[in-house]
Automatic annotation (TrEMBL):
The keyword Cell division does not apply. Keywords: Signal. Residues 1-21 form the signal peptide. This is LytR family transcriptional regulator. InterPro entries: LytR/CpsA/Psr_CW_biosynth, LytR_CpsA_psr. Residues 24-67 are annotated as: Disordered. Belongs to the LytR/CpsA/Psr (LCP) family. Residues 39-65 have a biased composition (Low complexity). Residues 92-240 form the Cell envelope-related transcriptional attenuator domain. It holds the Pfam family LytR_cpsA_psr. It comes from the Bacteria. The keyword Signal applies.
Amino acid sequence: MAVTRRSMIGAGFIGLSAALAGCSRQPEPPGPMLPDFTPDPSASGSATPSAQPSATPTPTPTASSVDPLPVGVVNALVFGTDSRDPKSLTGNADAILVAQLSADREKLTLVSIARDSYVDFAGGGKGKINAAFSGGGTERLRNTVSDLMGGLPIHMVAQNNFNNFIAITRWLGGIRVKNKNATRTRVISTGRVVEFEEGDILLENTDALIYGRERKTMPLGDLDRAERHRALITGLLRGLQAIAVERPDEFEVMAQNVVNNAKVTDFDPALVGDLADPLKKINLDAVTSLMVPISRFGTVGQASVCIVNEPRTRELAEALNSGDVSGYVAKYGEGYALTGG
């Protein structure tokens, strides 16, 4: 089956949307399962230290391993919403991220946008960027993000519900992340206390969801939470990549189940099974993790907002539009502390 330009992109970005959807603010839910799969029996529902996280698997060359994409960079907007209905794809865009795949298909750059970033809306008005979706739908959010990024072309948009995130976590046997901030949190709905140690940990069952929601116990709040989103996405893609390499038949069925419950623009769900080979090419040991720079936390009216550092955001936008953020990273690094001003 032929693979179109946009269909290839969906392999990783559908997984990204599942991860972000899992980070919305909701009570700890019962864990759903993807159809046709049984969770790894080793999944115990705890944040387990992991001294030896899985490395990016080495793809096995096959006759069909042909990159179907034309030359060029691919950009996707990926987001999850804060709807209380696990089957709903409405509400505010509670976790927002731009993913850029390089022209050689090996480099992935993840750029978070704080949900409370105070921005100009496409079509007029100003407000928190997460309200662009609730007030104008996917296209308004897409255009608002594009405008913020200096007219960056957005080739596709992926949105998912959080049930898929828990199911994928269990099917993968957990998601490995490098945790920057040790935290301890109590789940309101169950009273369960969960501790996340600093360093390499394995997040199993609903703990991955809890990990991505936490913000109040971390020094930079939503900015630290956004960093966790990017860590979860990288870990989730690493797991999906390993399955694509080691058990391609299972990957195809799983991917179909995920896309059937997702909302993705410019993507033909019938082609999802063809996406394993392109996914294998991404070097997940060299993901660039960034954030739209924030000068300070502030208020507009009665609303708490994040004030975007506009000059530095223009530099980031220029780098993304060029398809190469290495110069920006060399100048500013991958940190996301408040810049001041």
